[in-house]
Amino acid sequence: MLQALLQAIVGGLMTGSQLALPAIGFTAIFAVLRYPSFAVAAYMTVGAFAAVFANTHFGAGVAVCALVAAVAAGVVGVATEHTVLSPLRPAGALTVAIGSIALNLVLENVVRFFFGNDMRGFDMPILPDMRVAGLRVGAQQLQNLALAVVVMAAVFVFLRFSRFGRAMRAVADNGDLARLKGIDPKLISAFAIALGAALAGIGGALLGMDTSIDPLTGYRVLLSVFAAAVLGGLGSIPGAVVGALVIGVAEEVSLLVVPTTYRGAIAFFAILVMLSFRPRGLLGERAT
Amino acid sequence: MLSYVLFTLTIGGIYALLALSLNLVWGMTGMVNLGLAGFFAVGAYASAIATGAGAPVVVGWAVAIAAGVVAGLVITFATLRLRDDYLAIVTLGFGEVVRLIALNERWLTKGADGISGIPAPLKSTLGQAGFPLFYLVLVSLIVLLLWWALRRLDHSPYGRTLKAIREDQELARFAGKPVLRFKYEAFAVAAAIAALAGALYAHFQSYVSPDHFQPLITIYIFLAVTAGGVGRPLGAVLGAYAVVIFLEATRFMAEVLPGLQAVQLAAVREMLVGVALLVVLLLKPSGLLPERIAPALRP
Fold first, then answer.
1. Helices A2-33 and A40-58 sit at what angle, rounded to 10 degrees?
2. Which of A115, A272, A274 to mutate to test the interface with B (most CBs of B within 10 A)?
3. pTM of the model as a whole
4. Exposed end of chain A (fewer CB within 10 Å): N or C?
């Protein structure tokens, strides 16, 4: 029993690390642009398909695949934000959120149109699972974990120390004040969406390496991504990482007692419980 | 052909009820409900299960309405105090979870097989020919009744308070309105309407399964309400019929676009729905029948 529990926790941390990147993306978009982006699901799917394409057609390795996913999703994110979503901003955040749902539907079906509904996978050598202290650890997952950690570290360093990162945090903190200080909100918004969509894209690609992909790859985990961001506190980037790990572990541990098909429901109940007792999340600031 | 028209108009009426529900929540009060398909499912399953246990159809519909109210209150309990975007996230989750429960709790919902043999009211006396016409009249009358009631509400002090909350919650609170209570009530009533629509759907089709309640339905209804006119019940109703006609028209797309596979046609169809919603939001956010706001009385 203890063994099973430990195994679930290890597995949970692995899936959690894959959720962390899209969760950071979602929360970064929320922090700067102030709307919950449902299109994060489509950014993940676009990233995953771009990575599989690079892998199966050009034999790209893991790191190159991640880069391709980031670029593809980032470009799609910036282009759609610029043409479709940002004109909706004067109508309010909820209108943009609804626009992002429509955008998600369109992008998902563009992918479906060209690639169909079939499951696709990466053409990579299947790495055997390893055993560490009696626990099973997937080598592919471990590789993904390492990649996720590297990307997250880069994001943290960038946001913490670069001028651009500081400007982004300033806009998230107080948009009006940042504008007074001469920070161009348009540029920062474009950058936030590029970063958010790129991270979602890498997350989608990592998810695809672990399992397989189809046009619903992103949508299927969207609720878990939201749960991670809400648990950590909407708009908090360290919160999104903590939230993703907690959701990953919570999902795997709960699956010891509830059927696997209820995976999506666990994220939902985590959101409900968190909002009932501590709506601002573990590391967030305010929720009202 | 006649039966096809009757069928389409009946589905149009059921979508019109969903649109009235969404208009009450989103158009009038400014709250989002991305779980509309979930409330639709709750009503359909509640009535199917109740009548399956031997209850008369009317009792089944009452059970559906009650289930809708309870679901609406449970969902809003944790979230209405918070910023509006949390409601968006929670309602989206609700829609998914309802479908998961319908898929997995086989003892209650028969899982993916769905519940069949749901009694169609008066079908044995009216026969195969009379029933569709009777049901169309029934659904249309309910649409008419609810449209009339919501229009009354729209012009009443209660409706004006809801719109005040939509425009500026703080101001409404400052004016002494119990904002939270109004929001709970509006959401619960809207959930009940969506659940009633579900019950009507279940007894019309005689069969429900989790596949009938895809999140896509919620997007259809958002398209209906935004295209018809946010905040105006007549706009929501007409928008719903327009969306159903639009969806039916896309069925004939295969003839216009030969050489595409079935999956590609389905993708084009869903894409068109998404594009239509974006176009309406971008070009005519107030819809075809914009809401009318009476000029303020001069003191």
1. 110
2. A272
3. 0.92
4. N
